[in-house]
Amino acid sequence: MASLGLAASAAGRLMARSGVRQMVKPAAVFAPAGMHVRHLNLHEFQSKELMRECGVLVQRFKTVKDASLAEQAAKDLKAEEIVLKAQIHAGGRGKGTFDSGLKGGVHLTKDPAKVGELAKQMLGYRLTTKQTPPGGVEVKTLMVAEAMDISRETYFAIVMDRSFDGPVMVASPEGGVDIEAVAENTPELIFKEPVDIRVGVLPEQTDRLAAKLGFTGDKLKVASEQMQRLYELFVKVDATQVEINPFGETPDGQVVCFDAKINFDDNAEPRQAAIFAGRDTAEEDPRDVAAHNAGLNYVGMDGNIGCLVNGAGLAMATMDIVKLHGGEPANFLDCGGGVTESMVTDAFQLITSDPQVQGLLVNIFGGIVDCATIANGIVGAAKTLSLEVPLVVRLEGTNVDNAKAILANSGLPIISATDMDDAAIKMLKAMEEAKSK
Question: Cα separation of 25 and 32, whole Å?
Answer without folding.
Answer: 14
